[in-house]
From TrEMBL:
<feature type="domain" description="FAD-binding">
    <location>
        <begin position="124"/>
        <end position="328"/>
    </location>
</feature>
<feature type="domain" description="NADH:flavin oxidoreductase/NADH oxidase N-terminal">
    <location>
        <begin position="396"/>
        <end position="733"/>
    </location>
</feature>
<dbReference type="GO" id="GO:0010181">
    <property type="term" value="F:FMN binding"/>
</dbReference>
<protein>
    <submittedName>
        <fullName>Bifunctional salicylyl-CoA 5-hydroxylase/oxidoreductase</fullName>
    </submittedName>
</protein>
<dbReference type="InterPro" id="IPR036188">
    <property type="entry name" value="FAD/NAD-bd_sf"/>
</dbReference>
<dbReference type="GO" id="GO:0003959">
    <property type="term" value="F:NADPH dehydrogenase activity"/>
</dbReference>
<dbReference type="InterPro" id="IPR001155">
    <property type="entry name" value="OxRdtase_FMN_N"/>
</dbReference>
<dbReference type="InterPro" id="IPR002938">
    <property type="entry name" value="FAD-bd"/>
</dbReference>
<dbReference type="InterPro" id="IPR044152">
    <property type="entry name" value="YqjM-like"/>
</dbReference>
<dbReference type="GO" id="GO:0050661">
    <property type="term" value="F:NADP binding"/>
</dbReference>
<dbReference type="Pfam" id="PF01494">
    <property type="entry name" value="FAD_binding_3"/>
</dbReference>
<dbReference type="InterPro" id="IPR013785">
    <property type="entry name" value="Aldolase_TIM"/>
</dbReference>
<dbReference type="GO" id="GO:0071949">
    <property type="term" value="F:FAD binding"/>
</dbReference>
<dbReference type="Pfam" id="PF00724">
    <property type="entry name" value="Oxidored_FMN"/>
</dbReference>
Length: 796
C-alpha cells in the first residue's frame, strides 16, 4: 500500500511503525508541520490495558516505554486542608517528549519517510495519489473541516478554562488539589511522569477565571511556543502552598476551553480520521495519546486483516466506535462534574473524595472495595455517621425520612404505567404487580400515574382516582401492602395533557386512538407529534376545573390510605407541558417567562398540598431537561425545583425528557443522576428536602455509589423491578446483609440465602504461599519514588 499520514503525533507515528512491521513493503510518508523537537505538553498517562496492547503489537516500543515509566497506584485528594489517599488504582506515565522521540526513532528504523517542518500536500492531491490517507492532524483537523459533509463533525466547547503546565516537583501519586479561593474553586490535576517532573494542569470554571482576573490576557494572541506568562505568574502566587517552593514549567502554556469532538463518520472514501481529529475525551479521565495509539493499533490490524480499504476502514470504525463512545460517556460525566465542582465545596472530605473518584461512573463502591478496602469501609462508616445511623448496613439499607414518612431503606419502585386498568379501575393485576414489589423489599412502592379524570388518562388502560370505585380498589391494594409488608406506598397523580387519548403501549406507544378517543388539552394548541391530536388550549375555566379534579383525587388518595403523594410534572404530561417552552406558547400570565410557566403547576401543587394531610409528604416529579434545543435546561430545572420546594414539596423526583418527540437524550448508565445531583446540592440538601434519582440504574453497586457520593437520597428503579420483583431482597443477600432495611416476610424467609449453584460447594486447596489478602494489601499503596526510579518502592 501507498499510505499518506498527515500529523506526526503519537497516533500517526505509531500507526506508521505498526504498518511497516506488518509489511515492510508498504510505502509510507508522514508529514508534520512542526519540527521534530517541537513537543507540547508534559506527561502522558496509560492504562495497563493499553500497555498490554502495545506490548503485543510492538515489543520494542513497549520495552523502551516500560523503562521510562513512572508507576504508582495512589491518588491523593487535597481538600479542606486534608489529604485523603486512596490506593489500588494503577497508573503509568512518561514524558510526552520521550514518547515522541522513541516513536520517531522507531519509524526511521523501519524506513518510514518522515518529513518534519513540512506542510502536507493538499488533501485532494493525497486522496488521488495514495491508497490510504490518515488524518491524524489533531483537534483542529483541516482534513476533517474539508470533508465536513462526510464526517459530520460535532464540536462541543465546554465552560471550564484550563492550562497545561509542569512542575519540577516530582509527585509521589496522582494529585488533585481542590482549592477554595476568594474567587471560587480552582483545581489542579497533577501526576509524575519521570524522576524529574510532573504534569500540573490548572482548571476552573470560566466564571471563576473571570473573577480572578485571568481574562486580562484573553485578547492577546500568543505565537506557537509562547506561554501566557502573566497568568502563569498569578498561578504561581495562588498555588504557592501546593508548589512548596518548586517551579512552574511552561511549554506553549495558555488558557484553553476543552472541546469534545465527535464525528458521525470517521471515513471519506480512502481518507480516515484518527485520534483527536476523530474524537476527544476530557483529560480528567485519561489521555488523548492513549486513545490515539489504541486507534492506530486497531486500524493497522483491520487493514492487515481485510482484503480492501473500504472493508478495512468499516471494520476499524465498527471496532473502535463503541470503545470510544464508552470512553466519551465517562469523560463527559467527568468533565461535567469538574464544571460543577464548586457545588461540593462544603461536602465532608471523605464523601468528597469518594464523589470525585466515582464521578465518571467507571469506579463504584464495590470496585473501590477491591482496590482499597480500607478506604471503602471508611466511606461506609462516614456515610452512616453523617446521618446518625448504624455503620453496619450498606447505604441502600439505611433508613430515610421524607417529610414525616419513615422509610426502612432507600429503594423506591418507580412509577410505571401498566395500561391494565378497566375504566380507570385497578384490579388484580395491580395488586399482584405492586404487592409483589412491596414483598420484594423496597422501602417505597409507587403507583403508576393515577389520572385525575377520564379525559386525563393517557390510554384507555390507565388507572384513575376520579370515582369511588377506583378509590375502593386502590384501598384494597394499599391495605395489602400495609398488612403484608413493611413497605410504604405512594400514589402519583397526573393528567396526560396533550399526550392523552393514545393507544396502549404494546399497540403503539404515543399513537393516537383510532376510535373511542377523547379530547386532549394543553397549555397551547400544539400536538405532541404530527400524528397526535391537536389539544384544546386551556382557558381559565378549564384550568380551574383540572385543579379541582386534582383536589378530589387527593382526597380519595387519603381515603385509600396512601402514605405519600407525588405530583407528576414531568415527561410532557399536562403540568410538564406548562413548564416547557417547547409546548407552552401562551402569551398570557401562564406563558412566556419561566416564572409564568410555573404558575399553573404551582397552583395545582398548592391545592393538592392543602387537601393532603399535613403529616404526609407530597413530592414532585420533574423533567430536569427537555433534551431539545429551545427547551428547558438544567439551569431551568434548578429554578423549577426551588419553586416547588418553596411551596412545600418534601421531595423531588428527578427524571428528564419525554416532552417532545424530537428530543435527543444522552442515554447511558445512570445518565439522569447528574441532574438529580445538581438539584440536591443547590436546592434540596440546604432545604432538608429529599431527592430521588431515577434512570438506567440497575445494580446495587450503582445505588450505593450514588448514595455514598451524596448525589441523591433515594433511588427509584423501574425496569429492574420488572426483571426481578424481589430485587431489593436479592441485593441484600448478595451483600450478605440481614437487618431491618431488608426484612423477608416469614413466608419467604427460607429463601433469604442465595441458593447454591454448580460447584459452589467445592472446597478449594491452598495453592499459594501468601494469602491473597496479604498480596493485595502490599500492592494497594504504591507510590512513585524518584530516588529509585529504576524500581518502584512500596511505601507502607
Amino acid at each position: 500500500m501507498k499510505i499518506a499520514i498527515v500529523g506526526g503525533g503519537p497516533g500517526g507515528l505509531y500507526f506508521a511503525a505498526l504498518m511497516k512491521q506488518l509489511d515492510p513493503s508498504h510505502d509510507i510518508t508522514l508529514w508534520e508541520r512542526n519540527a521534530a523537537s517541537d513537543t507540547f505538553g508534559f506527561g502522558v498517562v496509560f492504562s495497563d490495558e493499553t500497555l498490554g496492547g502495545i506490548g503485543n503489537a510492538d515489543p520494542v516500543v513497549a520495552e523502551y516505554m516500560s523503562r521510562r515509566f513512572a508507576r504508582w497506584s495512589d491518588i491523593d485528594i487535597h481538600f479542606q486542608d486534608q489529604m485523603i489517599t486512596v490506593g489500588g488504582q494503577g497508573f503509568a506515565a512518561m514524558s510526552r517528549k520521550e514518547l515522541l522521540e522513541l516513536l520517531q526513532r522507531r519509524c526511521i528504523e523501519l524506513n518510514v519517510d518522515v518529513r518534519f517542518s513540512t506542510l502536507a500536500p493538499a488533501i485532494e492531491e493525497l486522496e488521488a495519489n495514495y491508497d490510504l490517507v490518515l488524518a491524524a492532524d489533531g483537534i483542529n483537523s483541516q482534513i476533517r473541516a474539508t470533508y465536513a459533509e462526510s464526517f459530520k463533525p460535532s464540536l462541543d466547547p465546554r465552560s471550564n478554562k484550563f492550562m497545561w503546565l509542569g512542575t519540577d516537583q516530582v509527585f509521589e501519586a496522582f494529585k488533585f488539589f481542590v482549592k477554595e479561593t476568594e474567587w471560587g474553586v480552582m483545581q489542579i490535576h497533577g501526576y509524575p511522569y519521570s524522576d524529574e517532573g510532573s504534569t500540573f494542569i490548572v482548571e476552573m470554571h470560566q466564571d471563576v477565571w473571570h473573577a480572578a482576573g485571568f481574562d486580562e490576557t484573553a485578547n492577546e494572541v500568543f505565537p506557537p511556543g509562547v506561554s501566557d506568562e502573566k497568568s502563569i505568574a498569578k498561578i504561581r502566587e495562588i498555588f504557592a502552598e501546593e508548589l512548596d517552593g518548586y517551579e512552574v514549567l511552561t511549554n506553549n502554556s495558555k488558557w484553553i476551553n476543552f472541546t469534545t469532538v465527535r464525528n458521525e463518520s470517521w471515513r471519506h472514501n480512502n481518507v480516515v480520521l484518527l485520534g483527536d481529529a476523530a474524537h476527544t475525551a476530557h483529560f480528567s479521565i485519561g489521555s488523548g495519546t492513549k486513545l490515539a495509539m489504541e486507534d492506530s493499533l486497531a486500524l493497522a490490524a483491520c487493514l492487515h486483516e481485510h482484503p480492501d480499504i473500504e472493508s478495512a476502514l468499516a471494520a476499524y470504525e465498527a471496532e473502535r466506535r463503541p470503545v470510544v463512545a464508552s470512553t466519551q460517556r465517562a469523560a463527559q460525566a467527568s468533565l461535567e462534574w469538574f464544571e460543577r465542582i464548586g457545588q461540593y465545596k462544603d461536602q465532608d472530605p471523605t464523601q468528597f473524595a469518594f464523589n470525585l473518584l466515582t464521578r465518571s461512573r467507571r469506579i463504584t463502591q464495590e470496585n473501590l472495595r477491591l482496590r482499597d478496602p480500607e478506604f471503602a469501609d471508611a466511606v461506609d462508616r462516614n456515610f452512616a455517621a453523617s446521618q446518625g445511623l448504624a455503620a453496619t448496613a450498606p447505604a441502600m439499607f439505611q433508613p430515610f425520612r421524607v417529610g414525616g414518612l419513615e422509610l426502612k431503606n432507600r429503594i423506591v419502585v418507580s412509577p410505571m404505567d401498566m395500561y391494565s386498568a378497566v375504566d380507570g379501575v385497578p384490579g388484580d393485576f395491580h395488586k399482584v404487580h405492586l404487592g409483589s414489589k412491596a414483598l420484594g423489599g423496597a422501602g417505597l412502592v409507587m403507583t403508576e400515574m393515577v389520572c385525575v379524570s377520564e379525559a386525563g388518562r393517557i390510554t384507555p388502560g390507565c388507572s384513575g382516582l376520579y370515582n369511588d370505585e377506583q378509590r375502593d380498589s386502590w384501598k384494597e391494594i394499599v391495605d395489602f401492602v400495609h398488612s403484608s409488608s413493611t413497605a410504604k406506598i405512594g400514589a402519583q397523580l397526573g393528567h396526560s395533557g396533550r399526550k392523552g387519548s393514545t393507544k396502549l403501549m404494546w399497540e403503539g406507544i404515543d399513537q393516537p386512538l383510532e376510535s373511542g378517543n377523547w379530547t386532549a388539552v394543553g397549555p397551547s394548541a400544539l400536538p405532541y407529534s404530527p400524528e397526535n391530536q391537536t389539544p384544546v388550549e386551556l382557558d381559565r375555566a378549564g384550568m380551574d376545573a383540572i385543579t379541582a379534579e386534582f383536589v378530589v383525587s387527593t382526597v380519595r388518595a387519603e381515603q385509600a390510605g396512601f402514605d405519600l403523594l407525588e405530583i407528576h410534572a414531568a415527561h410532557g404530561y399536562l403540568l410538564s407541558s406548562f413548564l416547557s417552552p417547547v409546548s407552552n406558547k401562551r402569551t398570557d400570565e401562564y406563558g412566556g417567562s419561566l416564572e409564568n410557566r410555573l404558575r399553573f403547576p404551582l397552583e395545582v401543587f398548592d391545592a393538592v398540598r392543602a387537601a393532603w394531610p399535613a403529616s404526609k409528604p407530597v413530592t414532585v416529579r420533574i423533567s430536569a431537561t427537555d433534551w431539545i434545543e429551545g427547551g428547558n435546561t438544567s439551569d431551568d430545572s434548578v429554578t423549577i425545583a426551588k419553586a416547588f420546594v418553596e411551596h412545600g414539596a418534601a421531595g423531588l423526583d428527578i427524571s428528564t425528557g419525554q416532552v417532545a418527540k424530537e428530543e435527543k437524550p444522552a442515554f447511558g448508565r445512570s445518565y439522569q443522576t447528574p441532574f438529580a445531583d445538581r438539584i440536591r446540592q443547590e436546592v434540596a440538601a440546604p432545604a432538608g428536602v429529599a431527592v430521588i434519582a431515577v434512570g438506567a440504574i440497575s445494580s446495587y453497586d450503582d445505588v450505593n455509589s450514588i448514595l455514598l457520593a451524596g448525589r441523591a437520597d433515594l433511588i427509584a428503579l423501574g425496569r429492574t423491578h420488572l426483571y426481578d420483583p424481589q430485587w431489593t431482597l436479592h441485593a441484600a443477600a448478595e451483600q450478605e446483609y440481614q437487618g431491618p432495611g431488608a426484612e423477608w416476610i416469614p413466608q419467604f424467609r427460607a429463601g433469604r440465602r442465595k441458593p447454591p449453584s454448580s460447584r459452589t460447594d467445592a472446597v478449594r486447596p491452598r495453592l499459594s504461599l501468601l494469602k491473597e489478602a496479604d498480596i493485595e494489601e502490599a500492592n494497594t499503596h504504591l507510590r512513585w519514588t524518584p530516588a529509585s526510579a529504576a524500581a518502584s518502592v512500596l511505601v507502607k
